[in-house]
């Protein structure tokens, strides 16, 4: 297995073990999203979101789609903790642009 494929596999396994139904509910609340919003954003059926958040079995693909979509909004997930705001690419880019603009003005 190539290192890229192995890295992707490991990342997916970490997400599958860290992302819980409770995380999904809490993350939606943080974003102000309904189940329908998350389903549309993640490209899954609303029933799949309902099933996952009711702690019923869903496929790994569904769980990954939900987790990755919420992570794309800048959220991070750790077992036993509520979701938190991580460093998003958008935030990092705007912060570095602000710093660069400030440095060039001085």
TrEMBL record:
It comes from Pseudomonas cedrina subsp. cedrina. This is HTH cro/C1-type domain-containing protein. It comes from the Bacteria. InterPro entries: Cro/C1-type_HTH, Lambda_DNA-bd_dom_sf. One of its GO terms (molecular function) is DNA binding. Transmembrane segments: none annotated. CDD domains: HTH_XRE. Residues 26-75 form the HTH cro/C1-type domain.
């Amino acid at each position: 297995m190539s290192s890229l494929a192995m890295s992707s596999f490991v990342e997916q396994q970490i997400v599958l073990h860290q992302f819980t139904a409770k995380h999904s509910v809490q993350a939606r609340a943080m974003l102000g999203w309904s189940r329908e919003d998350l389903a549309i954003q993640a490209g899954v059926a609303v029933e799949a979101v309902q099933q996952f958040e009711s702690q019923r079995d869903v496929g790994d693909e569904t769980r990954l789609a939900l987790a990755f979509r919420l992570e794309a909004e800048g959220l991070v997930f750790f077992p036993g903790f509520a979701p938190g705001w991580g460093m998003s690419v958008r935030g990092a880019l705007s912060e570095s642009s602000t710093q660069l603009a400030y440095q060039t003005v001085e």
